[in-house]
Design brief:
The complex is a heterodimer of chains A (198) and B (595). Chain A has 198 residues and is of the alpha+beta class. Chain A is built from six helices and seven strands, in the order E-E-H-E-E-E-H-H-H-H-E-E-H. In chain A, the strands form two sheets. Chain A has a five-stranded mixed beta sheet, with helices on both faces. In chain A, helix 2 (78-94) runs antiparallel to helix 3 (99-107) and helix 2 (78-94) packs parallel to helix 4. The model of chain A has no long low-confidence stretch (mean pLDDT 93). Chain B is an alpha/beta fold. In chain B, the strands form six sheets. In chain B, strands 12-11-15-13-14 form a five-stranded mixed beta sheet. In chain B, strands 2-1-3-4 form a four-stranded mixed beta sheet, with helices on one face. Chain B has a four-stranded parallel beta sheet with strand order 9-8-7-10, sandwiched between helices. In chain B, helix 18 (457-474) runs antiparallel to helix 19. The termini of chain B are far apart. Classes of the chains: A alpha+beta (198), B alpha/beta (595). Chains A and B meet through strand 4, helix 2 and helix 4 of A and helix 17, helix 18 and helix 19 of B. The complex binds flavin mononucleotide, iron/sulfur cluster (4 copies) and FE2/S2 (inorganic) cluster (2 copies). One iron/sulfur cluster (SF4) binds at residues 542, 547-553, 570, 583, 586-587, 589, 591-592 of chain B.
Chain lengths: 198, 595
């Protein structure tokens, strides 16, 4: 069955079970994503792709929201734009030196040195307490890639909240790993380095 | 006359206060006097007034004894069981030396309560199926299986207006209808007994005092949606509830109330018990289901809802313990009766665990629509030690703190939400004037931040930043503008988080800013904690006029920084003081000031 969805005032007919992100892509509307990869299962965790469901006034993740007939979406509403900037600033507060995240943030108009920076972004980019540096933004693409492409399950996420990490079993060099590099390939921030084990 | 029964409270609180020894002592004393045949001794579930345990209730007169010790037993038997005169010192009084209130039904804590989910509490022995059956147990199931169609059951529950008691308040009948209509086989039923709110014990108490009510509700639900397999997902820290639940399931199977062809019909239904994985987020339905399937307990995006795709991808209906416990009463007494109780949008009763700075802490079941004031002051008996009320927090770590001016808010889903809080699962924490509201917000955000699963960015990173800012404010490092930053962050975290945990985590911050902004401002601008709680912001000084020079504070001070001659005013050396507050606590003349 086909359903109709309207994105930024343009209507389009898509197959049932299509995500808002896919429908937007068909319309040529760009929505930033980080944890989404069309070849892997959907995660819905980074929240970079938030858009507004005009009907309910609520923000929904484009990658993991399935269109229903008559759905109206605004990807550029005030709330959606503010939310995506907030997510980008949060990720930058975590992986401040990552060139990929810096670039994404700057595409969304976030400049740490701008005098017009809003107070929240200013806090997140310039005032927050220093933290241990990491490139990993916990998108879990690597974990899903490993589980779904070579089907090795060599890496997984462990811990909760800020202590969450991507790890190998028992934190050793994983015997399951075949060195295919799928994880490093999908990582959006180049956080994975493939090395020869001794 | 009816036979006398002595009902000894066997809930978690009273058991840990030695109620089982009292039971033994009672049995021995009754045997010694040859009364063992005439008086029945029963162990029941929690009576709700755990703070005054061990509790003992004598029926049929309904006399309420509290703080009973084994030594009291001979006197109790002699004076009351034989002589008919309850010893006054074991009876309830409102205040010290106030008039005694012998009858349970007249004790104010109980007088305004209305029991549906807890209707068997303190009355039956939860380990005895026959006592449950004696109180119309399994009659609702029998009626459903023999006289009602699935649609009729759902219709009855829908018309009763029952809404989920686990937090969000979704209409139960509608949820059942979705699960029934969903395509897929088999279908499953789940009882959520994970109860992760710190300080809440409603569900524990229901399972402990009336496990069959939960089982019966689940079987009725299973029939209605067309499921024959069910799970109870119960918190690991509840050993007594777990034991009673397992026993009750065994008993029900033995009596043919669970298993194949229940009551000779072609309906089959059985329940497995699964012990929770421990984290707060495991109570969220999609992570609970992931945990049951042996996957990492992590929420996922909804829709699809569990009714469409739940356990093993099959249609699954999940309800909270208290929701299930209401079902049999709705079937037996009818939707009209149930919906006659409560407010316009919220029907029936709600169980709350009332804790904090209130005289009567405990478990209460009240009709929806009752005001917060009635719960805190009439049932709870007000604030101890003559202190002033400051706020009441409903909904646990996801709820909000409401001030004095909101005390007349009726307790129903919509009114609490409008005031900035939520009904939640039923935690109520009372705070008095010595509570710092910024510290309260910090405490709750520290909890949710710790319990965030970390899957989504706003909850994982955002709550950490909020916690950093709140901590800075309580330590005197807050900056002008921080309140607005907190508010904007809170709004964005609520709007973008994946599951209910992140979507509600900012509530304590938003409500404390809304109602107690002056406290934030005092911390930020004047570097002062008006309630004298935040250590880095307070100093202890001695009022020269009030000090009698008794030396009590100087002796108690662990770093000996208080000096002065006997009978002359003393002085605290501010450079040495570690702000332990010992001097404040020991001074009998109110001469030590905190500011
Ligand atoms: C973080 C989080 C924790 C939750 N914990 C519980 C819980 O301990 N017990 C519960 O019944 N529901 C809990 N819920 C609500 C469940 O997701 C679900 O809505 C509920 O079990 C549905 O039952 P009801 O309709 O009978 O309320 C929680 C929700 C969230 C977001
Ligand atoms: S390189 Fe190793 S860890 Fe990475 S995807 Fe391949 S097998 Fe998995
Ligand atoms: S290592 Fe890369 S792919 Fe894996 S979770 Fe971190 S950012 Fe994502
Ligand atoms: S809101 Fe928090 S608990 Fe829920 S999925 Fe996101 S990180 Fe996990
Ligand atoms: S305890 Fe009170 S009255 Fe006694 S010396 Fe200290 S401040 Fe003075
Ligand atoms: S791309 Fe949609 S949540 Fe990550
Ligand atoms: S355990 Fe006895 S009153 Fe709660």
């Amino acid at each position: 069955m086909m359903v109709t969805v309207t994105i930024n005032d343009t209507a389009i007919e898509v197959e049932e079970n299509t995500s808002v992100l896919t429908a937007a892509t068909q319309l040529g509307v760009k929505i930033p994503t980080l944890c989404y990869n069309e070849h892997l299962s959907v995660h819905g965790g980074c929240r970079m792709c938030m858009v507004e469901d005009t009907g309910t006034g609520r923000l929904v993740p484009a990658c993991s929201t399935i269109v229903t007939d008559g759905l109206v979406v605004d990807t550029e509403s005030k709330n959606a734009v503010e939310a995506r900037r907030f997510i980008a600033a949060l990720l930058l507060s975590r992986a401040s030196d990552s060139p990929e995240i810096q670039e994404l943030a700057s595409e969304l108009g976030l400049d740490p040195n701008s005098p017009d920076l809003d107070p929240v972004s200013n806090y997140l980019l310039n005032r927050r307490p220093e933290r241990e540096y990491t490139k990993c933004i916990l998108c879990s693409l690597c974990v899903r890639a490993c589980a779904e492409i070579p089907e090795r399950h060599a890496i997984s996420v462990s811990g909760r909240g800020m202590a969450r990490k991507v790890v190998t079993p028992f934190l050793k060099i994983s015997e399951m790993c075949i060195g295919c590099g799928s994880c490093a390939y999908v990582c959006p921030t180049d956080a994975i380095l493939i090395e020869e084990a001794d | 006359m009816d036979q006398m029964s002595l009902l000894v409270c066997g809930g978690t609180g009273c058991t840990s206060n030695g109620s089982l020894e009292i039971r033994t002592a009672l049995e021995q004393e009754l045997a010694r006097r040859g009364l063992a045949q005439d008086v029945k001794v029963v162990t029941t579930g929690c009576n709700g007034m755990c703070g005054r345990g061990p509790i003992l209730v004598a029926q049929p007169e309904g006399v309420f004894f509290h703080s009973v010790a084994p030594e009291d037993v001979p006197e109790l038997v002699e004076a009351y069981v034989i002589g008919g005169k309850p010893p006054a010192r074991l009876l309830y009084t409102e205040e010290q030396r106030g008039p005694v209130i012998p009858k349970m039904s007249e004790v104010p804590f109980y007088a305004k309560q209305q029991l549906i989910a807890l209707s068997n509490r303190g009355i039956i022995d939860p380990e005895n199926l026959e006592e449950y059956i004696g109180r119309d147990g399994y009659q609702a199931l029998s009626r459903v299986l023999t006289t009602m169609t699935e649609e009729e059951v759902i219709d009855e529950v829908t018309r009763s207006g029952l809404r989920g008691r686990g937090g969000a308040g979704f209409p139960t009948g509608r949820k059942w209808a979705f699960a029934r209509a969903a395509v897929g086989n088999p279908k499953y039923v789940i009882c959520n007994a994970d109860e992760g709110d710190p300080g809440a014990f409603m569900d524990r108490s229901i399972v402990e005092s009336d496990p069959h009510a939960v089982i019966e509700g689940m079987a009725i639900g299973g029939y209605a949606i067309g499921a024959s397999e069910a799970f109870v997902y119960i918190r690991g820290e509840y050993p007594l509830a777990l034991a009673r639940l397992n026993l009750a399931i065994e008993q029900a199977r033995t009596y043919g109330l669970l298993g194949e062809n229940i009551l000779g019909t072609d309906f089959s239904f059985d329940i497995k018990v699964s012990v929770g994985a421990g984290a707060f987020v495991c109570g969220e339905e999609t992570s609970l289901i992931a945990s049951l399937e042996g996957r990492m307990p992590e929420p996922r995006v909804k829709p699809p809802f569990p009714a469409q795709s739940g356990y093993m991808g099959k249609p699954t209906n999940i309800n909270n313990v208290e929701t299930w416990a209401n079902i049999r009463h709705i079937i037996l007494r009818g939707a009209e009766w149930f919906s006659s109780i409560g407010s316009e949008t919220s029907k029936g009763t709600k169980v709350f665990s009332l804790v904090g700075k209130v005289n009567n802490t405990g478990l209460v079941e009240v009709p929806m629509g009752i005001t917060l004031r009635e719960i805190v002051f009439d049932i709870g008996g007000g604030i101890p030690d003559g202190k002033k009320f400051k706020a009441v927090q409903s909904g646990g770590p996801s709820g909000g703190c409401l001030p004095e001016s909101k005390l007349d808010t009726p307790v129903d889903y919509e009114s609490l939400t409008k005031a900035g809080s939520i009904m939640g699962s039923g935690g109520l924490i009372v705070m008095d004037e010595t509570t710092c509201m910024v510290e309260v917000a910090r405490y709750f955000v520290a909890f949710t931040q710790e319990e965030s699963c970390g899957k989504c960015t706003p909850c994982r990173e955002g709550t950490k930043h909020m916690l950093d800012i709140l901590t800075a404010i309580t330590e005197g490092r807050g900056e002008e503008g921080d309140i607005e930053i907190l508010k904007t962050m809170a709004r964005n975290i609520k709007a973008t988080s994946l599951c209910g945990l992140g979507q509600t985590a900012p509530n304590p911050v938003l409500t404390t800013i809304r109602y107690f902004r002056d406290e934030y401002e005092a911390h930020i601008r004047e570097k002062r904690c008006p309630s004298g709680v935040c250590k880095p912001l307070i100093s202890y000084t001695i009022d020269k006029e009030a000090c009698t020079g008794c030396r009590a504070c100087a002796i108690s001070c662990p770093v000996t920084c208080i000096t002065g001659e006997r009978k002359l005013p003393h002085v605290i050396d501010q450079t040495q003081c570690i702000k332990c507050g010992m001097c404040f606590d020991v001074c009998n003349f109110n001469a030590v000031r905190v500011e």
